[in-house]
Amino acid sequence: MERRTFVKWFSLCSAGMLMTPLHGYPLIESKGDGSFKRVITKVISSDRIMPPEGKRVPFGWPAVGIAPGASVILKPEKKLAGKHFWLRLSVAMEIWDINLLKVSIPEVGICLGTMDIRFSSVLVPYELKIDAKHIEHINRYGLKITLDSPSPLWVFSEKARDADNRAFLPYILVSDEESGTEEDFFQCMESLNTVQAFGWREGTVLDGLWQLYAQKGHNKALETIKQHLNLFFEGGNLHYETGASKPKLNEVDGIESTIPFATVARLDAGHPILKTVVEGWTKLKKSNGMIVDGSTISAEGCYTVAYPMAVIGKAWNDKKLMKDALEQLKHRFALYTDNILYLRYHNTSGKYTFPNWARGAAWNLLGFARTMSELNGAMEDKEVIQKFQEGIKLALSMQRSNGLWGCFMHKPDSLPDTSGSAGIAAAILIGIRNGHLPEEYRQYANNCWNALQQYITPDGFLKSVAQDNRGGIEVQESDYRVIAQMGMGLMAQLYAAM
After folding, report:
1. Alpha-carbon span 294 to 284, nearest angstrom
2. What's the whole-model pTM score?
3. For residue 147, what are the β-bridge partners?
4. How do residues 135-150 score in pLDDT, each as one tens digit?
């Protein structure tokens, strides 16, 4: 599928930055210094099942479905040799339940372990560490993956025709080290390896890339933005899939879908899709001016609505849009109560949920910081500034001595969430830059950045991220953690603000 047409709207990039066809890409992707490589594993045996009617795999990339109880056989395309090994694969269709993949070596019947994939969005990698003592058998017999789930699982399976999707295929990561470096992080971040489902996930990544370009002069980040957007735009039209893998064309899919348009507006304020976005917000607006899905006030709206609204309003010199952006923040003052920062307030029941959830705090505080930063010098509101300061002070009171925040910040036994931690720390630095926070707060953000280094994988992904919030509070309270590119977008924003 050809999707290289966003460039017609994108005046900041030259035609030479178009994606290169990848027919000739090698079977092994290596880092320049040889510290890691990805060895693709070919799907050589599988039951062919059709995608569910009305659903679609992103970008038309090749994918294979695994039926409940069924198995696929994978064979490395090159001989494996090294010190540390991980099996990786990425989800190709949205998941709203628990999928367990039992990994074994056929013929010899050696069980290697289980890949636990829960409530996952597409384009997210999952991994299983493999003991080096089994590599000789894997080279000879390959791997057998059996699905234990009531529903099918779809994973990307082959190289795409016109995009470098190797990081999403089944492969064995081979590395001399068990963790990665800052250099590995940026190499991964500034590539198609971080493309995500369109909406809050991809928007967070795009925002991170933009900040790397705008604040740190990373030209590769700007090129990567265009590569990402070219996957979603065709003929000037926006094509993407919802959280249910259903196709969308030039539509807004709720308030969480609109954060990517902050980056689109920065690149071309005249792109016609922006008018559609503003119209979508108007349809979601309540009589009091609040833009929400249904009747629930959520922290996400600070970042996914107020912030892109401010960017578009400033780009269009539209005072009403800019004022509306600040009003969206004010409507979310309701989430601050009893010295607790909540993710959601349910108007119909009057209940608050997800107290002091780190990523909810990140959406709130980062949304405040970015919106005020965008409007700095054009429009200011003392009430908004004071509420932001209150939120930061509250978050800092729960930061741990190692620089991170627990998934539920007030609970000492709650495992850290690297994504929420990065987002909160980024908000602190933006607040300092805007003149809204004292300089001495910088040390707390720097401590977070330093702590995040231990969570970089050998090939630059960020791990120990709390899973998408589609499995309820039980999943968030558990020790279940994943690799997630949206967390990388937040980490990139932290670095860019340093």
Report:
1. 8
2. 0.94
3. 101
4. 999 999 999 999 999 9
